[in-house]
Amino acid sequence: MRIGLIGTGRIGSFHAKVLSGHRDVSALVVADTEGARAIEVARRTGATAAPSVDEVFTSGLDAVVIASATSSHAALIGRAARAGLPAFCEKPVAGDLPGTLAALREAEEAGTVLQLGFMRRFDAGYAAARERVRSGSLGRLHTVRALTSDPAPPPAAYLPLSGGLYRDCLVHDFDMVRWVTGHEVAEVYATGSDAGPAMFREAGDVDTAAALLTLDDGTLVTATATRCNGAGYDVRMELAGELDQISVGLGDRTPLSSAEPQGPPPADRPWPGFLERFAPAYEAELDAFLRVARGELPNPCDGREALAALRIAEACELSRRERRPVRPDGLVTG
What we know:
The protein is an alpha/beta fold. It has 11 helices and 12 strands. The chain is globular. The two termini are about 40 Å apart.
């Protein structure tokens, strides 16, 4: 397969390495608005650097991977749809609900594949948790606790472009809540704190957030996130039922210390970031996309799945601002 990759930043560079070494990829064409960066990534991976993003769509490709800046996603999804190309796009589709709906509509009308990048669906721990919940071995699920903690804040310039902590970070947890439990979020109540670095206040964002989600079957979910977890990168989910409870992300690299005298020792090598923690999941995700593009596999995360997670994130942001419960299905999409 001939694959085009648009965007060669941190995640794009990782994707380039994975795709260039994939058994089913015969040629990889990379492009970036920063041409020098694309040339360097091509040099390291054996890919071909396109002179511009426009050139990608005239290179006789079989599929395209979009890993560029968030603001460009919707337009590139549209271009792939008009070119008849299957597309993989890192989340989000767009920065808001109306933009997301418009891009999804264009892909659907063209009849092209659009797979969204929610890599946790390919993580072994989350997949095992999903199986345990769906098998009934936990009994009636009554409580879910989800968290994502970054070890350090991103650059200040990134914050105004990120969409905020709920849309940029917790949206992965919202997707996992739906995917693991099989239930929809009926209502949210969210709050946040900007008591950390001043750049969060200046961007109108928060550095720490918490949300209480009520699922459509009455299960209660807490979802928390922070940009300031100095111990390391921590992503976990705990699921408690009437018969048993399990944890995802609890291992010898979890950046968590026990205060108990007989508790486990601190991790020798705590996870430093998301690429290290989820590298196998990212690889499996791209492998799945290539199979989807060839018609060998159903789409594991289409645009409507991404839309559902974004609705929850939008509802949380509205709840935080207005200090009230919000129903995701009641949001006006414009």
